[in-house]
Prior knowledge:
The protein contains 9 helices and 7 strands.
Amino acid sequence: MKISIVFPIHNEFKNLKTLLEDWNKELKLLKKFSYEFILVEDGSTDGTKELIKKLTDLYPIKNLSQDEKRGYTRAVLDGIFASNGDYILCTDSDNQIKVGSLIDNIENLPEENTFLIGFRNPRRDPKNRILYSKLFKIFHDILFNSKLKDPSCPFVIGKKIDYEKLPVKLLDKMKEGFWWGFVATCKKLNFNLKEVSIEHFERKEGEAGYTFSKLPGIIIRNFVGLLKIKLAKDYKLNQY
Length: 240
């Protein structure tokens, strides 16, 4: 069985080498699984592109670098479509979620029509980002009642065939808060969501969250995106 690990990446030069070293070290010990890293580099300007080229000689990497910034949502979707695994794990490249969270759940992979979603416990992000998430969760619960503790957690495992069933037309309505929209789409289409506690770490390098000045615009755009998903009627479940 093969697992694809999708990492959206933007300006993670200081994190990426350690990240892949740690994940590769643990994953190569798994006897029943093979794996690949899908690196969806997204217009980095800090040397990340050049580093990825070097790392492709060391690890099983599919390099999806591009000069033009596509944004987080499109990066995740591009990574999913490029994956060859039976299962896909989507997570972030900032080293706040470690390979141990996958290892802990490797015997707990979801059945068809189910996604396993992490719950950051505790969440180690800047206070402004945590506050935004708590407030936005109220609105998300009113619209979709997911019953998840952490519906924006970037740790999601599912079968490739299930990811491919989800209509891009809905997922693409959330340009920034992708996982909020992902959960909303899953609820709208009656997928099962299984939540598990995962360990979350402080970001050691790079920017750790949205600046306060950007939050109002992000909140408004995410409100609109969720409403569009809730009210959407012109979509259909992809069949494979």
